[in-house]
Amino acid sequence: MLDSNPELNRAIEFALNRLDAVGGDPFRLPSALRVLVFVHAAQGIIDNGGLQYFFEVDFPGQPSYSNFFQAYRAIGAIDEADALEGIVDVLFPFPNPELHQPKRDKALECLSETQRLGRDRVDELMVGNGSIWEKLAKHVALNRAEFAVES
Fold first, then answer.
1. How far is CA 115 from CA 73, 79, 110, 112, in A?
2. Cβ partners under 8 Å of residue 46, min gap 6
3. Is the dihedral of CA 133, 88, 73, 16 positive or negative?
4. Alpha carbons 55 and 105: distance in angstroms, whole number
5. How far is Cα 95 from Cα 107, in angstroms, rounded to an integer?
6. Residues ≥6 apart with Cβ < 8 Å to 131
7. CA neighbor of 136 nearest in space, from 69, 89, 75, 54
8. Annotated domain spans of the chain
9. C-beta of residue 7 within 8 angstroms of C-beta of residue 141
10. Which H or E element spans position 121?
11. CB contact at 8 A, 133 and 5
């Protein structure tokens, strides 16, 4: 999807440059750029390594997983956001799992069959889901002025 959408590619490059300019803090970006940064980071990792990889990564600044759920919802990927949020609750029954990589790793090593099946279902929904990139492209188009993207 990315290769075939130059406008989205330019918006991603713009947003990542702006992220660098604010010291890597996505919360210092305008909302539309912040949404793109969170979805781009999460979906890129999920597409390349599945949920396992997403949960093994500590994101810079350790933002709450809720920021990722909100970003998916902001682009209209409601089912995906709900599934991701639901599986976080199932896999990590402790507060703020994004802050506790060793606890996440241990939980991932000891999954019950039910947890494994749930993770696999969410993986199937999210890995390689081109509609997420299409929704992100629509988000960019709707917020073109914030991305300095010309039509």
1. 24, 19, 9, 5
2. 53, 54, 126, 127
3. negative
4. 8
5. 13
6. 77
7. 75
8. 6-147
9. yes
10. helix 113-126
11. yes
What is the spatial distance between Cα 53 and Cα 131, in angstroms, rounded to a whole number?
A: 21
Structure tokens at 6: 């130059």
For residues 107 and 49, what is the distance between their CA atoms, to the nearest angstrom?
A: 18
**pLDDT tens-place values along the chain, 151 residues long:** 555 789 999 999 999 999 999 999 999 999 999 999 999 999 999 999 999 999 998 888 899 999 999 999 999 999 999 999 999 999 999 999 999 999 999 999 999 999 999 999 999 999 999 999 999 999 999 999 998 765 5
Q: What is the reported pLDDT for 3?
A: 58
Say which residues have a Cβ less than 8 Å from residue 111's Cβ, sequence separation at least 6.
91, 119
Residue 4's pLDDT is 78
57 and 45 Cβ atoms separated by less than 8 Å: yes
Distance in angstroms (rounded) separating the CA atoms of residues 36 and 115: 29
